[in-house]
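Feature request, filed as a ticket because there's no other form

It would be nice if the structure record came with a short human-readable summary line next to the tokens. Right now we just get the raw output. Example of a typical job, pasted below so the devs can see what we mean:
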Amino acid sequence: MRDFKKNQPWMNKKRRRLERSRDDRSQPNHIPLDLTLEILSRLPAKSILRYQCVSKLWSSSITLPSFINSFMSRSTSRSPTLLVTFSSSWGDYVFSFPQHQIPDGSTCSSFYSYQITNTDCDSPRSQSVQGLILLPVLKIWNPTLRRFLALPHPGKHMSSRDGWSSYLGYDSLEGKHKVLCVLTNKYSDQPQVLTLGAQESWRIITKGRCPVHSPTSEYGRCFNGILYYTARLRGAGHDIIMSFDVKSENFNIIKFPEGRSRKLHMIPYEGRLALVTHDYHVVKLYSLKDAHGHEWTRECFVLHLPCENLQRDCIRFRGITDAGEFIFAPCRFKEAFYILYLDPRRSSTREVFFERNMGEFRRRCGLSSSHTLTMDVFPNHIESLFSL
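Raw output as currently delivered:
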């Protein structure tokens, strides 16, 4: 009778379940932290920020520089977005739109949108530089985190009475953002630089690396590890382009092309510095052929506008996508707006409308169609978890 019970099928199943439970207890019942962080770094920033509430360990690990850099490397491999800000007397608003694969004449939907209360967003000092945007009064805006980071004052060498211009650069080799600060009310060869996130204070550039100059524009452009802004040398009667190597912190002078217009926009084009100017339909492109010899080439293109009676000052050049398309958009609008993409290689123009999105946006924010909105456009924006 005893042997009969031992050979019963249900007894064998029970024994197997007991053995399996012992094996399960011998195995780790959690995922290793390094594997967890690897998985998290592949998620969108919105999901990562939500998972900060899971535990103190996750919250502290997500803010580690190693995790932020890992997320940044994956973010740069994704398609960048078009960040657009709208300003009105009722507030400032942020939209993120797709930048590529939008057919001509189509209506575009946003990835996300939100309202911000900082009043400095209507006058940015930079494009989106690896996910960060420089604002007036030495503030850094991270649109992904929806945070504004106040930078320390440059110190006694730069008083508010002197006046200065600040520029945001990025060193892709070391993965570091730097802010350059240069006096504007007098000529100087000792600008200051601040490395973000390095627990450093402002440093004066070593004497001899920088020509004596004064900036003539508050807006700079950084690409391929080089920061560019317009300036004037002491004793000179014309402007030049000052280049600043973000990694080595060395300066170089680049002469403007002859016969240039006063309104020029600096962009990267086919891996080189280029200047763009446009007068209604005509777009001129100056490409730097040789920085040491100050040689430029010039090309002209035709921008096909959606309306022939469009006022000349209604549309502005906004930058270039990573695919090489020039971006044009109105400076203000009421009911709807559009963005024009000019492909200089194909000499073609595509138009993207945002009418449906703006109607939903106005209803949500309580704005009527009579409210005029001004806009800024930030091409090639990527997500970033950087925080001071």
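Something like this underneath would help us a lot:
The longest helix spans residues 9-26.
DSSP finds seven helices and 25 strands in the chain.
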